[in-house]
Write a structure and sequence with these properties.
509 residues, 2-enoyl-CoA Hydratase, Chain A, domain 1, seven-stranded mixed sheet, 13 strands, 39% helix
């Protein structure tokens, strides 16, 4: 707001001025004020826009609406994480009102996300992309980055001797002696192709793609499928190499593994002779899952048209069950009771079968069928079930999350492995088919919310994290060497318990 200052603008004095001169001066001043209201003075040009809380408060209300409409773990947040949503949003509103800059307002939103305790809830504040360049087959541009594989821990165990296989860059492996036992170690840094850029480069050569050539979603999918197939084959080769060197126990290091894709389901089955049953999955009601289920039903019905009589009946039965779930997805559930600390009258999540698809475990009836992955997603990877058949240990820590938690949870729930380390981060199920991102209208930030939830054998939500069978005091502040020393102290007991597990057929908690 511009103030009228008689001395500064007009230089008026108390004597020797006529009424006409005064009126003229006032007219000039009025015109100046009108112009100033539309454009700042030259001295203010380029100054930062003053902070205004109102747009941020509108974004906060949009955030509240998004949680009420599309957040899978809303019930868990209220009743298991014990979050008072009304107080949390009131506190965030106060922080936004008290902020002096947009940076402080963003910090208030980020704090809200952290308070929910869900590793898949976050705000992305980066500038929106403005270029319209077509994506290319450049591996870095496609998201392939070795940093995503995280830092190993088991490789720093005292006495660890690395193998020297050509495929070690994919899954670094080695041997360690624990008492009288030889333990093979395999590092899985990420359950997704994007953690292994060297395989992306190999895929470009194999698929005869130029890095500078345009690469749409179909092209990116071809690269990812090729890399996934190599990952599947290389993991089996690594296990065989360790077995040939006399490994009696296998330790899979997924410490600092941030997750990945459904390849985690296939990897778990490669490392156990047990017919693993996958976790149950719930979905958020709404258009996102309604569309996905509609597409799934159409795929099953199309597959049925070319199947034999027995398979046709099976596929049509599956399609009918999907149709029922589609109807459930289209039926909303009012989330307002959560803000009062109450449960709604309806189930918050719809029932979406299993993390492996329509069936929870592998079965001979789907082997070799072109439609197998429609009902059992691990079937899209040509994996060898039970490539490792001996005692199994899975190493986790506080940075193990998402699909890595899925991997550990499946093996633990099926009593197929002993889980060693610290409680995992608690990210649980994440985003399906691109998820349901919400673009905040004023700040342009993007709110990401998980649209699914995985439930353990005991009915608990995987977002709580995986509790190891044998706890080790691994601290986030410790580097990999220090964490490895802590693991080494617990490893003799872990090996003995894994051996007993294999002999007894179950984990002793």
């Amino acid at each position: 707001m511009h103030r009228f200052r008689s001395e500064g603008l007009l230089g008026l004095r108390s004597s020797g001025i006529s009424i006409c001169s005064l009126v003229a001066a006032l007219l000039v001043c009025s015109l100046h004020d009108a112009a100033s209201a539309e454009s700042p003075p030259a001295s203010a040009a380029g100054a930062a826009t003053p902070y205004d809380a109102r747009p941020w408060l509108a974004d906060l209300e949009q955030t509240r609406t998004a949680l009420a409409d599309r957040y899978a773990n809303l019930e868990w947040v209220v009743f298991e994480h014990e979050t008072n949503l009304a107080l949390l949003f009131a506190d965030t509103k106060l922080r936004v009102n008290s902020a002096a800059t947009s940076t402080e307002a963003r910090a208030a939103f980020d704090r809200l996300a952290r308070q929910l305790g869900d590793g898949h809830v976050r705000f992305r504040w980066q500038e929106q992309a403005t270029d319209n360049q077509r994506p290319t087959a450049d591996c870095k541009g496609l998201g392939y980055d070795a940093v995503k594989s995280g830092v190993p821990v088991a490789a720093y165990l005292p006495g660890y001797a690395p193998l020297a296989n050509p495929h070690d860059a994919v899954f670094p492996a080695g041997m360690i002696r624990v008492g009288a036992h030889r333990v093979g170690v395999v590092r899985i840094g990420l359950f997704a192709p994007q953690g292994i850029p060297s395989l992306c480069t190999a895929a470009l050569d194999a698929l005869q793609l130029e890095a500078a050539a345009p690469c749409d979603d179909a092209c990116a999918d071809r690269i990812e499928a090729w890399v996934s197939a190599r990952m599947t084959a290389d993991l089996v080769r690594e296990v065989r190499s360790l077995r040939a060197r006399g490994a009696e126990v296998l330790l899979i290091d997924i410490a600092n593994n941030g997750g990945g894709t459904e390849w985690a389901e296939a990897a778990a089955r490669m490392l156990s002779p047990i017919r693993l049953k996958s976790e149950h999955v719930g979905f958020v009601r709404g258009a996102h899952w309604a569309g996905a289920l509609s597409a799934q039903e159409a795929g099953l019905r199309t597959a049925a048209t070319t199947a034999d009589a027995a398979d046709r009946a099976f596929l049509l039965s599956m399609a009918s069950q999907v149709a029922a779930r589609h109807e459930e997805a289209a039926t909303p559930c009012d989330a307002e009771p959560f803000w009062r600390g109450e449960r709604p009258a309806c189930p918050w999540l719809g029932d979406s079968w299993f993390s492996s698809g329509a069936i929870d475990s592998d079965t001979p009836r789907i082997h070799g069928k072109p439609w197998a992955s429609l009902v059992f997603t691990p079937a899209k990877f040509e994996y060898e079930a039970g490539a490792w058949r001996g005692p199994l240990i899975v190493l986790v820590n506080g940075s193990t999350g998402s699909a890595a938690e899925e991997f550990a949870a499946i093996l633990q729930d099926n009593r197929a492995a002993l889980v060693l380390g610290a409680p995992t981060v608690g990210a649980g199920c994440g985003h399906t088919d691109g998820g349901t991102p919400t673009v905040l209208e004023n700040s342009g930030g993007v709110l990401e919310l998980p649209d699914c939830a995985r439930f353990r054998a005991d009915g608990s939500n995987e977002v709580m994290g995986v509790e190891p069978d044998l706890l080790v005091g691994l601290r986030a502040a410790d580097g990999p060497h220090r964490q490895a020393l802590r693991v080494a102290a617990a490893l003799p007991e872990a090996v003995n318990r894994a051996l007993r597990l294999r002999n007894a057929g179950r984990v002793h908690h």
